[in-house]
């Protein structure tokens, strides 16, 4: 009797395992789905880019046309523009899933919640990186900034920073999209958490612009990396509690 | 036992607060460099300790809720966070009042000050989230996840701000503080601790009743337990 139930148990577990494709494979599927959706509409990326450039302009109007002042404040403004626009794109990425109960459908599929998180967070990261690729040259042009260190270091800083914003951002947007007053809640929850990203990224960016005689850049990059690594792990572990019923 | 706590906690807190306050204000000696203004430490330092305890209790209760799903843990997490935000606002306020005559500015970007401010805002966001979610199960789970994320952030914020800028009192210990100042500080610390216990307990009772109403399980008046 026990051997029969054991065998049934084995069969059940085997079929369950078969019904769930690999975590990374599913994550890749979700990544492609979101990218395709975005590509078909292109509304999100267009709106976000214009919003981000607009904030850069607003910052410079607020500071006045002094070239020296603008060069000094450019790293901070660039990152603030990324932060503010990230709210738009993060909440939009999860809002997609609330239309026609898509999130419910995703939940019913034999899919690991971890895959949903990885796929979504990867798309959000890619999105913010793409935004930075537009924003940085525009910002450098309107603020008249020149780089002392290599552009590849700047790219790495922006990649790390965007990854750091995306992990907690994806988790929080999954929460706030299901709550009332989501437009207020997301920045209220997310911004205090990602202040280390802002500090490290702005410092690192200004070192790339002004030169790094004291060799501080490495420390700030490690802080960015550490934050990103910690939050990708923590949010991966917690995400299933947020989307499950 | 409940009656004893109902009356005992506020009584003990109030008594210690009066004794600690009197001792700190009138008995303890004047500080050599800061003068009278240092006396704010009898509020500032205990409030900071208690806020830290409160947020730690929230974190532990949140993790407990995530593992066992008991309502008691969720209610405790909320109660403690609310009291913690109150005390940490008190810390920021008294810190600014003290900072102006001592440092010459109300605010500096020192690691502990800045971390305390960020923590306050984070937990204010946590409380806001709780207000905007109506389904009790979801609210409890999401709030618990948020509390864990905030708690993980605290050391990261502290390190990043420390690298970014530094200027604060070197942390004092009973060995570096004059013995005449230690006693009133200890009394005040216990006063604040009992005040925390009193507030949190009260808030816990309110939270329990609110939840009972939400879940439609409120027993008849007069039989409402905690």
TL;DR?
The complex is a heterodimer of chains A (245) and B (226). By secondary structure, chain A is mostly helical.
Written description of the protein model:
The complex is a heterodimer of chains A (245) and B (226). With 245 residues, chain A is mostly helical. Chain A contains 10 helices and no strands. Chain A has helices spanning 2-19, 23-41, 43-63, 67-98, 102-108, 113-143, 151-176, 182-193, 195-210, 217-243. The longest helix of chain A is centred in the middle third of the chain and has 32 residues, at 67-98. The model of chain A is unreliable at 1-14 (pLDDT under 50). Chain B is built from 6 helices and no strands. The two termini of chain B are 12 Å apart. Chain A binds chain B through residues 168, 171-172, 175-176, 178-182, 184-185, 188-189, 192-193, 195-196, 199-200, 203, 219-220, 223, 226-227, 230-231, 234-235, 238, 241-242, and chain B through 66, 118, 121-122, 124-126, 128-129, 132-134, 138, 141-142, 144-146, 148-150, 152-153, 156-157, 159-161, 163-164.
How far apart lie the N and C ends of chain A? 35 Å
Helix/strand-derived category of chain B reads mainly alpha
DSSP E strands of chain B, number:
0
Structural class of chain A: mainly alpha
SSE order and pairing:
The complex is a heterodimer of chains A (about 240) and B (about 230).
Chain A: H1 2-19, H2 23-41, H3 43-63, H4 67-98, H5 102-108, H6 113-143, H7 151-176, H8 182-193, H9 195-210, H10 217-243
Chain B: H1 2-27, H2 41-68, H3 71-103, H4 111-131, H5 136-164, H6 179-215
Helix pairs in contact in B: 1-6, 2-3, 2-5, 2-6, 3-4, 3-5, 3-6, 4-5
Sum up the structure in keywords.
heterodimer; A: about 240 residues; 10 helices; globular; disordered N terminus; B: about 230 residues; mainly alpha; about 75% helix; about 0% strand
